[in-house]
């Protein structure tokens, strides 16, 4: 029924109007809106109220029809959770019944606490339990300083490492437990003298504190795999600010899933995304455990098959191969080069623009001399071989600016790529 026919019906008889309302209630939202608009003109408040309810019900029904059913776990009522001790671990030989409780070696559960998940949560964060805040504080210390106060962040037991600074861990734990304020904790760490000191390693420091467990210098370690890629995208201005949404499939070699993909699976073969999806944060990367993203795995990202609280950090030639030749890195360098070329006509202005984007500081005179000497050498190559320049700037889905000289753009692409591979760039 169209809006015009509804209005005709309303004019003819109020009785018919009620009939029309009953007919379209919860079934046709568009007609209901049309009638609602007309009813407002007639100042029929009751009719408008009825129609609003009909529209709301119809929208609610439409949402339910297209929504997934989310199963929510709920505590079983009327009985206490229990389990049986299995004789010699055999499932068909249950023995004594046991109920939920806390380890006797630790503080007891409060007398008025419910014996369910809520009670367990309250027990974990109670003032008598110092372990929870210690573990959390140590994890943040590890993220900021590279190594936790307790090096074995995954093991605080007798098989784990002893804390390097036990009094510091105690103090931070108490500070954090007062209000569980993560922002305050992180601010406290990054504004501390220990974090803000220079990471210069003198001969004396290397002899007395080779791995910096005594905090004789500032932290210095390579960024995690996801951060390396995201940093390049951010410096180039290509990183998508979009939050949430489905996983994405950025650049990966063709056929990367063929060897492990099942014919019946919807992940049998890798099909790269396009557009904005290529430049989303690495957090949203679609992850196939049988074939993790190669660039992430090479840079020590965990396989996600098991929980990982502490990543290993290695230094291999393959990592340089990724940061120098991965399509995502080359494309990011080219997009940054476009910004640099448009920033100024002279080399000094361009180099300053690139350095500020990547290093957050201008280059020194000595550094600039070295970079410009390399730049002139690269430029001579691409001036002599313009086809090589066109091949380089064509890497990636995004298209280079046709108004820019290919040889000039390729030259600054290589300069940006080299600066993105500096230790100062890749290390925190």
Question: How would you describe this structure to a colleague?
Answer:
- With 428 residues, the protein is mainly α.
- It has three domains: 3-65, no CATH class; 131-208, no CATH class; 221-241 and 285-428, no CATH class.
- It is 50% helix and 3% strand.
- The protein has 19 helices and two strands.
- It has a two-stranded antiparallel sheet.
- It is globular, with a radius of gyration of 31 Å.
Q: Name the structural class.
A: mainly alpha
Overall outline:
globular
Distance between the termini: 65 Å
What's the number of helices? 19
Q: Hey, roughly how much beta strand do the residues contain?
A: under 5%
Element pattern in H and E? HHHHEEHHHHHHHHHHHHHHH
Spatial extent as radius of gyration = 31 Å
What's the total count of β strands?
2
Strand order in the sheet with the most strands: 1-2
| Largest pleated sheet | 2 strands, antiparallel
The overall average pLDDT, rounded, is 86
Low-confidence stretches: none
Tally of separate domains: 3
Helicity level: 40-55%
């Amino acid at each position: 029924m169209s809006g015009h026919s509804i209005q005709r019906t309303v004019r003819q008889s109020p009785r018919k109007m009620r009939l029309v309302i009953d007919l379209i209630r919860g079934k046709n939202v568009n007609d209901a809106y049309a009638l609602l608009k007309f009813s407002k003109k007639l100042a029929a408040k009751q009719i408008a109220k009825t129609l609003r309810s009909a529209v709301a019900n119809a929208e609610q029904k439409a949402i339910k029809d297209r929504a997934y059913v989310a199963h929510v776990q709920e505590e079983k009522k009327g009985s206490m959770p229990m389990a049986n001790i299995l004789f010699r671990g055999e499932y068909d030989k249950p023995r004594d019944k046991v109920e939920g409780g806390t380890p006797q070696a630790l503080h007891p559960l409060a007398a008025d606490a419910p014996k369910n998940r809520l009670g367990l949560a309250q027990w974990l964060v109670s003032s008598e339990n110092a372990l929870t805040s210690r573990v959390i504080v140590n994890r943040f210390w590890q993220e900021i300083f590279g190594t936790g106060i307790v090096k074995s962040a995954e093991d605080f037991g007798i098989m784990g490492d002893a804390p390097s600074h036990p009094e510091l861990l105690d103090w931070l734990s108490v500070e954090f437990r007062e209000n569980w304020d993560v922002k305050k904790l992180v601010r406290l760490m990054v504004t501390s003298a220990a974090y803000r000191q220079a990471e210069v390693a003198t001969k004396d420091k290397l002899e007395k504190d080779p791995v910096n467990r005594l905090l004789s210098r500032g932290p210095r370690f390579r960024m995690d795999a996801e951060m390396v890629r995201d940093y390049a995208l951010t410096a180039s201005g290509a990183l998508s600010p979009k939050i949430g949404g489905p996983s994405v499939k950025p650049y990966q070699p063709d056929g990367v899933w063929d060897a492990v993909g099942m014919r019946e699976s919807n992940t049998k073969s890798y099909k790269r995304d396009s557009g904005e999806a290529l430049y989303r944060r690495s957090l949203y990367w679609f992850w196939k455990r049988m074939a993790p993203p190669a660039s992430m795995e090479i840079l020590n990202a965990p396989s996600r098959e098991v929980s990982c609280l502490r990543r290993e950090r290695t230094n291999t030639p393959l990592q340089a191969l990724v940061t120098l030749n991965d399509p995502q890195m080359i494309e990011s360098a080219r997009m940054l080069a476009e910004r640099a070329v448009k920033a100024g006509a002279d080399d000094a202005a361009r180099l300053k623009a690139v350095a500020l984007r990547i290093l957050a500081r201008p280059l020194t005179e000595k550094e600039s001399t070295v970079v410009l000497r390399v730049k002139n050498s690269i430029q001579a190559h691409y001036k002599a071989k313009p086809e090589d320049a066109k091949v380089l700037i064509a890497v990636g889905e995004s298209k280079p600016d046709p108004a820019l000289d290919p040889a000039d753009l390729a030259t600054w692409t290589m300069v940006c790529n080299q600066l993105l591979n500096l230790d100062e760039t890749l290390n925190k």
